[in-house]
Amino acid sequence: MPPPRLPCPRWHRARTRKRTVTTIAAARRPKSLITWARRKRSAPLRSRRSRRRQHRCERDSLPASARLPARQRHLLSLDSGGNYHGYIGDLARMAVLGDPDAELKDCLAEIEAVQRAAFAAVRPGAMGGGIYVAAERQLAQITRRDCTDFLAHGMGLVSHEAPRLTAKGPVPYDDIDARHPLEPGMVVSIETTMKHPRRGFIKLEDTVAVTATGYEIFGEGGRGWNLGGSAL
After folding, report:
1. With contact defined as beta carbons under 8 Å apart, do 177 and 210 qualify?
2. What is the model's pLDDT at position 20?
3. Which range of residues forms the domain containing residue 171?
């Protein structure tokens, strides 16, 4: 007589029952839920497609010049700064991909001339407004006066503070320090910006400190056209 057949272990029965129930439930699931499950499985693929579509939209929203590949004589303006123990400094320099042509050299030379004229007016005891007088005198001599702007403002714990030299800058305040003498220890940001109608944005900016004997520039290097793809 054959031995009696032992019952299935409980864990095996549970696993078999679960598989059976799941199979039956899948057969009875509405088509919409099956479609939903398939879409859920394909979500990573759709996410990649969505990201690509989003990148295309972001690229298309950029100006035409920003969508072009880098080419010869494309300009780069680097406007940055630093923070030393809470005190702020500003600096702007220009770079070009390839060699700058004669027109680019002339534009930057005119901006440099305005900067130098403003530096010469920085000394202790001189009126703060003298910086603008010297810069405006030089601006009147350049060829692109209509698209060139000059700005000088005090710097320190914030980017615009005393000495307050103009009431027409991007940050609204009065120009009370334009009628007062400069003092040693004052720090001024001096910047000249040319928005050339064909060549683009060309700018120099320097952080200048008033010293006992005149002025000191923090970061004198790189004032000419820095060449893209080359190390300083």
Report:
1. no
2. 44
3. 70-227
> Is the per-residue pLDDT at 170 higher than 50?
yes
Instruction: Give the CA distances from residue 5 to residues 1, 9, 10, 132, 137, in Å, rounded to whole numbers and listed in that order.
Output: 12, 12, 15, 106, 111
Alpha-carbon torsion, ordered 122, 123, 124, 130, to 10 deg: -50
Start-to-end CA span in the chain (Å): 97
Describe the crossing of helices 31-41 and 43-61 by its angle, rounded to 10 degrees.
Answer: 60
Strand partners, 206: 190
Cis peptide before 163 (omega within 30 of 0): yes
- The last residue of one of the domains, among 66, 95, 110, is 66
Considering the domain architecture, whether residues 29 and 96 belong to the same structural domain is answered as: no
User: Which of the two residues, 78 and 2, has the higher pLDDT score?
Assistant: 78
pLDDT at 11 over 50: no
Q: Which residues contact 112 (CB under 8 A, 6 or more apart)?
A: 204, 223
Q: Residue 202: how many CB atoms within 10 A of its CB?
A: 24
Residue finishing a domain among 48, 66, 84 = 66
